[in-house]
Amino acid sequence: MNIPLLSFIVFFPLAGALFLIFVNRENEKVIRSLTLIFALINLAASLWLFSGFDGGTHALQFVERHAWLGKGIEYHIGVDGISIFLLLLTTFLLPITILSSWTYIKDKVKEYHIFMLVLSSGILGVFVSMNMFLFYVFWEAMLIPMYFLIGIWGGKRKIYATVKFVLFTMIGSLLMLVAIFFLYNQYFKAQGFHSFFIFDLYQLVLPTNVQIPLFLAFALAFAIKVPLFPFHTWLPDAHVEAPTAGSVILAAVLLKMGAYGFLRFAMPMFPNALSKFLPYLAILALISIIYGGLMALIQKDVKSLVAYSSVSHMGLIMLAVFALNLEAIEGAIYQMLNHGLSTGALFLCVGILYERTHTRLIDDYGGVSKQMPVFSAFFLICMLSSVGLPGLNGFVGEILCLFGIFQANKVLAILGVSTVILAAAYLLWMFKRVMQGPIVHERIRSLKDMNKREIVYLVPIVLLMFFMGIYPKPFLKKIEPSVSHLVKRFEERVLLTDKTQGSDYILPEVKNDQDNPQEKEDQNP
Amino acid sequence: MTDLFWLIPFFPILSTFILAVFGTKLPKKYISLQACFAVFASFAVSLISFLGLLKTGPEQLPLLKTLFSWITAGKFQIAFSLQFDSLTAVMTLIVSGVGFIIHVYSIGYMAKDKSYARFFTYMNLFTFSMLMLVMSSNLVLMFVGWEGVGLCSYLLIGFWYEKHSASNAGMKAFIVNRIGDAGFLLAILFLFVHIGSVEFTAINQAISGNMITAGFATLVGILLFVGATGKSAQIPLYVWLPDAMEGPTPVSALIHAATMVTAGVYMVARMNMLYSLSTTAGNIVALVGALTAVFAASMALTQNDIKRVLAYSTISQLGYMFIGCGVGAYAAGIFHLYTHAFFKSLLFLAAGSVMHALSGELNMQKMGGLKKYLPRTYYPFLIGAIAIAGIPFLSGFFSKDAILTSAYAQGNYLVWALGILGAVMTAFYMFRLIFMTFHGKERLEPEAKKHLHESPPVMTLPLAVLAFFAVVAGYVSLPAVFGKNLDWFGRFLEPVIHGHAHHISLGMEWLLIFISVAVAVLGIFIAYVFYISKTHLPSQLAQKFPFLYRLLFNKYYVDEAYNALFIQPAVKGSELVYKHFDLKVIDGAVNGAGKSANAVGKLLSFLQTGFIKDYALIFLVGAILLLGYLLF
């Protein structure tokens, strides 16, 4: 690759943001249009990248590696089957969120769009960083624009929500930072040179008792991000107060970083510690499913309801991650995309309503379908996708997750199936109270149906929901090699550390993983 | 021609797509034409495939068509593939055939509705989903159809969503069904992990290869049956079906009588090899079926809502089908499914015609004496009632008799006795309905009487067609007492259904037939006495046994009990947890931490720039920690 396409995708939004600084703030239309164009260019670039992505291998692709600050701190990025679709999801949603805030954001338009662009650069950076230092920089940097997006354009309790959001996240990431440097030091001790390269650090075989504190530090950071029960309370507040676009990005992409972190770091680096804590983590995930579902059931605020539904859905994804087998993790990654689409779309739908009525309370609605039939159809499809109706995307991920969990532990799967009932209950009940029944509030009578702009940004999501539900093969095929490699390596590593208990140890073949000859994928023993 | 069978479901889905996107812009005439034609095309291809199947040898069954590989992840491989065998043929013919008649009827019934396009979109989508359900060659794809019909049921029950009762009923149907679906899903997981495939052929091979123990078959059989109790409205999940009558009447006829609710019966029959491994599972199916048959019939005795009587009747009749499947007479169960599709959709459509005539009146206490005003509705209705009551020689007689005889032959006398008890009630409530509606005194509201009119031909003609089938449909399977080898239906299903028939003597069979006919006549006679000759008797009885009457009239308070036992605790409990745990304990801890961070921030007062300070402060702490760490 001669063109640094991946770098382009990561930094183009940032460049766009810099460009916007020089645009007159009065020209709001220009600012909006420019941001949209930047977002679309980025989407096109990522699709181009995707067309060149080789789905047959687990190796890193589009790798760019340059010296940066020295001592192992390098600019090193790449994508594989685990991250490629998360990257695409991010670039796919950016133009949609820009369109969704077209009339919603009236205040400080310029700053808003700058922060949106910076935010997406930060997120993209997290997913492609192969150097832990770089990863941490993006991980933290991304918080700043999110902080301002909620803090400036948020609702009534925005300050409380932002501080809470930042506090939660910072506590987790601080401990993770310490762990990263400890790992870095251990690697230096074992190997004699510095490296922050993730795949180098994979080779470090630490005794279980050393793995445990490191794992806990990483796990806490990611569990907060997911969020797993009981670290979830920042999420409803952040969602409720955030502007629509903020909620969409938060639910669709930011939460995925937690699950991604487990797959990218916690699972390959600390296999023994993970195995040891697996029962507890799995139970937390299971509690998240049921607890999130029950809490969603009784929320009075639609956004809060969708936020708790996220806790429940992410719980299933995490339970699948902790099942540690091919089908479960493949399902988990697929379900991350589905959740991104369906929950993102639900927030967009709520945003459409909020923009018209300026209320999010379920009791303030009722009978909206009569006034907004087109919206009703879109909302229904998005809701059904979230419920996991077969034929739409959610089902494919859900059944793969459940199948994988079932293979690992039947009891967990049996209890996890309750999500099927809970999701139907809280979403349909909400839909009933908001959209159906007679109109009781006068202002509902004056509601206008969706306009063209709103249809334009929801149609791609809905089409993708159908496509991913009916023909998931192109996605799964590209995810599978990476996941299969991840699972196999995990299993080997668990055995290996058991044999070499005691001292620090480095795997004999310290080589970059992508240099290895491609292994034959063999899933059917 | 049979190789084109896979086209069957695609006509309705194509039509759905067109109607969903352009529906509001199309003229009503075109919408109905397209929707009906799509279902008719499915019926035509089903018929052609069926005729082709008659020539195909059983060893080539089932015909398979894999369209593409659907979900592929590691060991989880699911193909989007359809199959066609004799059981599927029967089901596709019923679904598309009865479906077509009901589509035609809907043209008249829905003529004045403003959401005409939406109605036919849902109806076509339903037909597609139901065809997928019966044609898929594996359990996961079947689950797609299974949930798809559930969705359409939800949408169509709540079709008039502005009414609270309608939207509540739709929601209830979907959620209750989901409880059953969770069981179905678990059964799929158990089978998939155990066998490595959920293709029906693979499951049957695994059973033939002794890969499945009786205990495992019991477990999976029960889980599948949990799914069936949801979709086919059996105890304990039947509660959604009576409320489902909120939907337009053609919907009640198509979805909540003739097709969707029989999906559970189809599923059990499809998995008959599994059930034949486990007598426990079979006995549970038969017993639940028998109890439901009696329980639902008893609730139908006192209802005054014409559609609700029919709804409880449907639940009860579905119970009979499960008796058949449970005692191993799968062919008899499917046979009853097939005859029931005709006479029950006939009864619903006729009831719809009555409602249409009375401007939407459902209460039978405000009817009576309608025979002379609505003759073209009355006679088909009467035929349907005779058929369901089990009077020889209409279709219901043959199929109900086949089931009860099998139950007796298998030695399951309790189930047989319950079936007989249900049969008396069936005859009674059906003729109670006929007498209260069409005979006796006129109790019409003056307003309704003014608009009283017979339905248009587009509605009465379908009644005539269905009435014809309600009479003759039974002759494809005659009991052994009429001669050998007259069970053509059972033989046709033989390649799919490996039932082992228990034989009883011809004399015994004659006796059984005599008993079931006698109780049917008895039921009709009691209804005649109560509602024609001595009309004061019912209220006297109700006064004499107030407790029993109230219990029946309030449907045993089952809805109230479920609400108190499950729904209220879930909602109230969650509210308590939310208030006292989520907001107080977890958030309390967080807010405490936040406050102390603020206090520290105030202490270090060199950073007072608002809220960025918190962030900056923590970042600073982080940087210090980091530096400290790097230094040593």
Compact summary:
The complex is a heterodimer of chains A (525) and B (632). Helices cover 73% and strands 4% of the residues of chain A. Chain A has 525 residues and is mainly alpha-helical.
Which short descriptors sum up this protein?
heterodimer; A: 525 residues; mainly alpha; 22 helices; B: 632 residues; two-stranded antiparallel ribbon; 26 helices; 2 strands; 72% helix
Rg of Cα set of chain A: 22 Å
End-to-end distance of chain B: 82 Å
How much strand content do the residues of chain B show? Answer: under 5%
Morphology of chain A: globular
Oligomer: heterodimer
Helix content of chain A: over 70%
Question: By helix and strand content of chain A, what is the structural category?
Answer: mainly alpha
The low-confidence parts of chain A are 508-525
Number of helices of chain B: 26
**Count of DSSP-assigned helices of chain A:** 22
The H/E string of chain B reads: HHEEHHHHHHHHHHHHHHHHHHHHHHHH
- Which term fits the overall shape of chain B? globular
- Quote the beta fraction of chain A: under 5%
Secondary structure: number of strands of chain A: 4
- Total strands of chain B: 2
Give the low-pLDDT segments of chain B: none
Number of domains of chain A: 1
- Mean of residue pLDDT of chain A? 89
Structure notes:
Chain A has 22 helices and four strands. With 525 residues, chain A is mostly helical. Chain A has one domain (5-505). In chain A, strands 1-2 form a two-stranded antiparallel sheet. In chain A, α16 (373-387) runs parallel beside α21 (452-470). Chain A is globular. Residues 508-525 of chain A have low confidence and may be disordered. With 632 residues, chain B is mostly helical. Helix content of chain B is 72%, strand content 3%. Chain B has 26 helices and two strands. In chain B, a hairpin with a 2-residue loop joins β1 and β2. In chain B, α11 runs antiparallel to α15 (330-357), α15 runs antiparallel to α17 (395-409) and α16 (375-389) packs parallel to α20 (457-472). In chain B, 55% of the residues are buried. The mean pLDDT of chain B is 89. Chains A and B meet through α6, α7, α12, α14 and α17 of A and β1, α5, α6, α25 and α26 of B.
